[in-house]
Design a protein that fits this description.
It is elongated and about 80 Å long. The chain has 16 helices and 17 strands. Helices cover 31% and strands 18% of the residues. It binds ligand TNX. The site of ligand TNX has 9 residues, from loops.
Length: 508
């Protein structure tokens, strides 16, 4: 008979823990987006059942959000009060970290998250969550232990604009469905949710001055489904929900093309005064408001005024793309009206790169998607650029031929998970130096995406690659793919049906 191996003695050598040694804490090397500077030390912090959180008064909402995630999965009470093992602090002396940077320090007995501004503290908390086991993302109580290796992280983003665009016009997605995406993108430090609210196939936000936009224009979608729209109250609530997670909602009203839903709703907007039937197909570039009419200017002013009033964020996206039926002169005239309205309402104008047709320039933001010359022309005149190159950032592109089956398209090519990440936003376009790049945005167009199951498959994991391109300094595709594998279980724990790309070794 062989003598049993003295496991208990070995465990004692490793720290005298009773019973089998617990699993090692989550490695700090799996952070996504990758953090700027990471120092790991050799201790362990354990979140216990009696732990408390403390926060400067201005940070209480951030502490409550962190606590609510931790409460759900740990089952612990985790009160937020005056003192605690997890401390959230504003630290003006760290101003070099900028508006979104943070410092996270994990010691054996406490965790301190400090940042010059609340957004940074929020991002520090998101990083802390990634250092806990993946089951922290579950919404039902899980078994412990809740261990985190000790160390320090200092981190700040490369770009100010890190976005996801959701096209709720081609297929409508409810406020609850959109909130689910806000939750996930905020975890990965994305900070803009661009809502493509209007297009040929649907108008998705109520406008008091033109109620037909939603009574008629919202009643269908691609394929003839029931469509839908946000009431002003629903939209305001969504904006607030996102803001609490440091995500700025950027509403887009697409003008003067991509306006068939408006033309179908309001006869006067048509040059012949006749409203066409609603459109449920997938063609682009066939519609235009009628230039030079007082009613068109009135319409633009009313819509922009009401959307601006509903939107606390500084940006208003006015589309401007693919107005193929609009002459340059008419385009210029209508965009001049649009510009005046945006300015009069105190907002910053953002438009697709085609705004270069109307001399986009200083104080404006153009969003590149297809033609590199347009964004560089705008940058040369002083505009800032958000990069959504279709070949990398369009999330409606399939990963591979008919992958995932029956969803997506490939007019810009297939965009697999490595390719979506394998580019440098600071060096994508000639004539658009990094200093002119405001940031990056992944775009989920939904002509071919009708359900959240389909949307999950197309958005994730590619949106996570975009989050890293926007936040982290340039890094290798290999490192990204390795770390991404550790986030499969986290997405799964949140109920996100992501695409399990074959290039990634997915964790269990
Ligand atoms: C191009 S991007 C469009 C959208 C479509 C998308 C489909 C842009 C400014 N226009 O209208 O939905 O391609 O991939």
């Amino acid at each position: 008979m062989t003598r049993p191996f003295p496991w208990a003695l070995l465990a004692c050598l490793a720290g005298c823990a009773p019973g089998p040694a617990p699993a090692p804490p989550e490695p700090w090397t799996n952070l996504l987006p990758r953090a700027q500077s990471v120092t790991v030390t050799d201790g362990v912090f354990t979140l216990g059942a009696d732990a408390r959180l403390s926060a400067d008064p201005a940070l209480e909402p951030v502490a409550e959000l962190l606590a609510s995630t931790l409460r759900a999965s740990t089952g612990f009470a985790l009160p937020v009060g005056e003192s605690g093992a997890i401390r959230l602090q504003l630290a003006p002396e760290l101003s070099a970290l900028g508006a979104e940077g943070y410092e996270l320090s994990v010691e054996a007995s406490r965790v301190i998250i400090r940042a010059p501004e609340a957004a940074g503290v929020f991002y520090g908390a998101q990083t802390f969550l990634q250092l806990l086991p993946a089951r922290v993302e579950r919404t039902a109580a899980q078994p412990g232990p809740w261990r985190v290796a000790t160390g320090t992280i200092r981190d700040q983003p490369r770009f100010a604009w890190r976005g996801l665009m959701l096209d709720v016009a081609r297929h409508f997605f409810t406020p609850a469905e959109v909130r689910r995406y806000v939750d996930v993108i905020a975890r990965y430090k994305l900070n803009r949710l661009h809502l493509h609210l209007t297009d040929d196939q649907g108008w998705r936000i109520h406008v008091d001055a033109w109620p037909a936009l939603t009574t008629v224009g919202a009643a269908t979608e691609v394929g003839g489904g029931a469509g839908g729209f946000y009431t002003k109250a629903e939209y305001a609530e969504l904006v607030q929900y996102a803001a609490a997670r440091f995500v700025t909602v950027v509403p887009e009203i697409d003008l003067p093309g991509h306006t068939h839903a408006a033309l179908a709703s309001v006869p006067e907007l048509n040059c012949d005064g006749v409203a066409p039937a609603p459109y449920t197909g997938v063609s682009v570039g066939f519609s235009s408001l009628c230039a030079g009419r007082p009613v068109t200017a009135q319409f633009i002013g009313d819509v922009i005024g009401e959307i601006a009033a509903l939107t606390p964020g500084p940006f208003l996206h006015v589309g401007g793309d693919e107005a193929k039926m609009t002459s340059d002169a008419d385009y210029g005239a209508m965009m001049a009206v649009v510009r005046d309205a945006v300015r009069a309402n105190g907002k910053q104008l953002l438009a697709w790169e085609e705004l270069a047709r109307a001399d986009a320039g200083a104080g404006e933001i153009v969003q590149h998607w297809l033609d590199p010359t347009l964004a560089s022309a705008a940058a040369a005149r002083g505009a800032k650029v958000v990069l959504s190159p279709a070949r990398r950032a369009y999330l409606d592109m399939q990963y591979d031929l008919d992958v995932p089956a029956g969803t997506g398209t490939f007019w810009a090519g297939f965009v697999n998970v490595p390719a979506a990440y394998d580019w440098d936003p600071g060096a994508l376009l000639d004539g658009v130096p990094e200093s002119a790049v405001l940031g990056v945005e992944a775009a989920a167009w939904t002509e071919t995406i009708a359900t959240t199951d389909q949307l999950d498959l197309m958005v994730f994991p590619r949106a996570l690659g975009m989050a890293e391109l926007g936040w982290s300094q340039p890094g290798s595709v290999r490192s990204y793919l390795e770390r991404l594998g550790a986030h499969g279980p986290r997405l799964e724990a949140r109920g996100i049906g992501f695409f399990a790309a074959p290039q990634v070794r997915w964790g269990q």
